[in-house]
Amino acid sequence: MNKRFLQRNTAMASLAAASFLVAAQASAWTLKEAAAPYSGTTIHAIFLDRPGYAAAEKLIPQFEKETGITIKWDVVPYESTRQKEVLNFVSGGAQDIVLVDVVWIGEFASNKWLVPIKKFTDDPKLADPNLNLKGFFPILLDSFGTWDKVTYGLPFDNYSGLMFYNKCTLKQAGFDEPPKTWDDLLNVYAPKLTNASKNQYAFALQSRRGETQSADSFMRMLWPNGGSLLDAKFKSNLMSPQSQAGLEYRQKLMKYMPPGIVDYDHAEAVNALAQGQVAMITEWSAFYPTLTDPSKSKLGNCLGIATEPRGPAGLKPALGGFSLAVNAKASAKKQAAAWLFIQWITSEQMAKPYLEAGGVPARMAVYKDPAVEQKYPFVKPMVESWQGGVPDYRPRFPEWPAISEIIGEWGTKMMLGEVSVKDGAQTIGSKMEGILQKAGYYDGKKPLLK
């Protein structure tokens, strides 16, 4: 018999055996059996008062029934979440599942507060063979769950900045579609959609002091204009012509926004559109359920959704969201139970139930279903935004919270006219570089890019 023929058949037999083994392992693993050693365990989490968490709450009883593991959560305002979690890390408080904002992961991982998921994915008793990390949108897994090439968390509450608008109001003003560029929004749409005497405004840009000011307002105007917070050497880039153009644009747009816009957080901006006070907002995709809830919104069939407008630098939408990770200071038993929940709630299997409950899953497969795209009109612009978004929309290094506070203060002063855009940008840049200098980014103690 031909030797090459024998070698080929031997290789094929080995491959078939290996495939059979993998298939057998996949069919053998069940959540119920994996969770059996942890039945009766209670694990604690922090949730936000947002649709994605309400969606998870609807599904949790299914997990508890299957596993015998109890999930308890505290609903905490976003502005207090990081502080509460850090306090728990330091004091040993009850926190097994860690909610990790995209801009907290550098701080949490660098302090060794999170368990790398490799600890669990390398354990055949805990790792679901169908986990499929490649099934997540790469920009989400990399941005929300990964730091310094190590994955700590899985994307859970996932956001892209989108344009939500009132189709009926735009049509009455003579527009059949939303503005495709920021320039058109300011110069063509806004004047026709604003009537201050009737408390009607074209646009609301959530800008409350804090992370909302720094990320949802300030940073949102930099990228589309070709600007950025930092240059390649981690020096301030706020005085570049592009960054200055973006911040000056925001000042011009303010006259078409409701008075007191610097006190608008997400809830106020969403409500202004929902109740007909403004015609357009750029907000996170996660607020779609709120805007389609008849008890909270008057929009009905008038709700329109598109990508954020394009700027001179193209489509550069806001990127935000969270991952769920395991607390490194929790007991081994609680760590395992927490991982099983995280793996389950972010799985491909649960992606559609999570979406139908009001969440926004990070799994690519669920959005390939034409029926899903038809049922949820935010899906198409959201996927387009994720495919062409800005991974470093906000810096993820540990110093971001301190820098965010500076931007929150001086960005607000800019909007109020207490300082000029130029002076405010110079102040932010100087204070920011002081923080980075102290942290060691300029003397080689820390790498410039992660």
Task: Report a brief summary of the structure.
Helices cover 47% and strands 13% of the residues.
Describe the structure in your own words:
By secondary structure, the protein is of the alpha+beta class. The protein is built from 19 helices and 10 strands. Helix 3 crosses helix 15 and helix 18 packs antiparallel against helix 19. It folds into 2 domains: 198 residues, Periplasmic binding protein-like II (D-Maltodextrin-Binding Protein, domain 2, 3-Layer(aba) Sandwich), CATH 3.40.190; 203 residues, Periplasmic binding protein-like II (D-Maltodextrin-Binding Protein, domain 2), CATH 3.40.190.10.
What is the name of the CATH topology of the largest domain? Answer: D-Maltodextrin-Binding Protein, domain 2
Structural class: alpha+beta
Q: What is Rg?
A: 24 Å
Query: For the terminal residues, how far apart are their CA atoms?
Result: 57 Å
User: Regarding quaternary structure, how should these chains be classified?
Assistant: single chain
Q: Which of globular, elongated, flat, extended, rod-shaped describes the shape?
A: globular
CATH architecture of the largest domain: 3-Layer(aba) Sandwich
User: Largest sheet, described in full?
Assistant: 6 strands, mixed
Rounded mean pLDDT score: 92
Number of helices: 19
Strand content: 5-15%
Q: Could you state the order of secondary-structure elements as H and E?
A: HHEHEHEHHHEEEHHEHHHEHEEHHHHHH
| Total of domains | 2
The count of β-strands is: 10
Helix content: 40-55%
InterPro entries: Bact_solute-bd_prot1, SBP
Keywords: Signal, Transport
Protein name: Sugar ABC transporter
Family: Belongs to the bacterial solute-binding protein 1 family.
